[in-house]
């Protein structure tokens, strides 16, 4: 960990595990009889328990959103740039809750967990999860924490989808929903990218129909390829060009098929590192949850009709070079919110980093995010 500790850090944090013994019914028609959710919290809950903020993570995220896990930890949580004292989600004013979603692979019950009925990992027998299922489990977590209403539910990418779903499924249990670099549903192109990633995993000879743990192996190459495909979509052409250009690792072409360009080496490194820490079945599950997300579906594709159920206020942010979830997708949400006569604030941020821009603290982004969350804090007297 940096020495001295940054003054705007939440410091050393310890994850907590909450066990739920009551079955949770899932959208697929199956149920989990019992399950765990791993959670981190930052800041203090105020006397009337009104200053709680829920952080929803994206596809490869987890509960570790801010701070450090030990004094020797060199890397902070995945959204440390936005969570902490004086940051947009100010832990001097808010009680912040961040969890690893059901189906995850960082401690919450998921495909790599032990199935109590067999004594072996769930693997492919773990039920398919939807965004609505995640929101239901988060509402049950709020019950456990005695939080009746969130000051805000906040998320980027897939996390923004959860924030939107919260506004529809539990309209009386949140005051604000913040959806950053998100979308009301995937385009055909996005579903196609997810399918290529899944095919990379399932065609790995070590996948074993999802029961790779029974064979004491992992589909590393498939997961590596899936992450490489995904990572390309998170960056913009300009950001990749600025970072790598056409630079070679050496000074001349090798006339072969090993990694010769810097960008090739970078993608292989990212893929290899990801394959060591993420579960392949969880990757399949989370990409399918992305595919299924479409709250307008049951309203004949009319998102404005779905949003008539919402009562919270919204902040929607997009980024100019995000081609995974383009500004047009955010504008689709905003237009539907306006049509449904919901209160919404919207900004498109000019940033060169593509979809990953929501993780990078550019001044206009943090200024807008901070100003909105400052208003949220004032409303709850924080």
TrEMBL record:
It is an enzyme of class 2 (transferase). Pfam families: Abhydrolase_1. One of its GO terms (cellular component) is cytoplasm. InterPro entries: AB_hydrolase_1, AB_hydrolase_fold, HAT_MetX-like. Residues 51-359 form the AB hydrolase-1 domain. Gene3D superfamilies: 1.10.1740.110, alpha/beta hydrolase. It catalyses: L-homoserine + succinyl-CoA = O-succinyl-L-homoserine + CoA. Pathway: Amino-acid biosynthesis; L-methionine biosynthesis via de novo pathway; O-succinyl-L-homoserine from L-homoserine: step 1/1. The record marks 324 as: Important for acyl-CoA specificity. One of its GO terms (molecular function) is homoserine O-succinyltransferase activity. Its EC number is 2.3.1.46. GO terms for biological process: homoserine metabolic process; methionine biosynthetic process. Signal peptide: none annotated. The active site is at residues 157, 322, 355. It is found in: Cytoplasm. Substrate binds at residues 227, 356. NCBIfam families: homoserO_Ac_trn, PRK00175.1. Transfers a succinyl group from succinyl-CoA to L-homoserine, forming succinyl-L-homoserine. Homodimer. This is Homoserine O-succinyltransferase. It comes from Marinobacter antarcticus.
């Amino acid at each position: 960990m940096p020495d001295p500790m940054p003054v705007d850090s939440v410091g050393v944090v310890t994850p907590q595990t909450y066990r739920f013994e009551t079955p949770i019914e899932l959208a697929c028609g199956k149920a989990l009889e019992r399950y765990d959710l791993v959670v981190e919290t930052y800041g203090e809950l105020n006397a009337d328990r009104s200053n709680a903020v829920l952080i929803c993570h994206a596809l490869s995220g987890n509960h570790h959103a801010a701070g450090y896990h030990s004094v020797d930890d060199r890397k902070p949580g995945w959204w440390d740039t936005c969570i902490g004292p004086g940051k947009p989600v100010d832990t001097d004013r808010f009680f912040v809750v961040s969890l690893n979603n059901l189906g995850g692979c960082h401690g919450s019950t998921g495909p790599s967990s032990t199935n109590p009925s067999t004594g072996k990992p769930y693997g492919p027998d773990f039920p398919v999860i939807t965004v609505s299922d995640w929101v239901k489990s988060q509402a049950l977590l709020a019950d456990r924490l005695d939080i009746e209403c969130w000051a805000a539910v906040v998320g980027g990418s897939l996390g923004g989808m959860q924030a939107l779903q919260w506004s529809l499924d539990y309209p009386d249990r949140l005051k604000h929903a913040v959806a950053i670099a998100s979308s009301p549903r995937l385009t055909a192109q996005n579903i196609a990218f997810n399918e290529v990633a899944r095919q990379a995993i399932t065609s790995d000879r070590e996948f074993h129909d999802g029961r790779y743990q029974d064979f004491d192996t992992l589909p590393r190459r498939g997961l590596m390829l899936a992450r490489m495909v995904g990572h390309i979509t998170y960056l913009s052409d300009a950001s990749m060009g600025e970072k790598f250009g056409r630079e070679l690792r050496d000074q001349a072409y090798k006339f072969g098929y090993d990694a010769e360009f810097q960008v090739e080496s970078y993608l292989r490194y990212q893929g290899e590192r990801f394959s060591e820490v993420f579960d392949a079945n969880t990757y399949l599950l989370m990409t399918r949850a992305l595919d299924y997300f479409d709250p307008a579906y049951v309203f004949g594709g009319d998102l404005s009709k779905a949003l008539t159920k919402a009562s919270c206020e919204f902040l929607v942010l997009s980024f100019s070079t995000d081609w995974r979830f383009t500004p047009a997708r955010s504008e689709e949400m905003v237009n539907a919110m306006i049509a449904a006569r919901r209160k919404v604030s919207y900004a498109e941020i000019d940033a060169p980093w593509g979809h990953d821009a929501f993780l990078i603290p550019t001044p206009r982004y943090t200024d807008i995010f901070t100003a909105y969350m400052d208003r949220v804090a004032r409303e709850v007297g924080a």
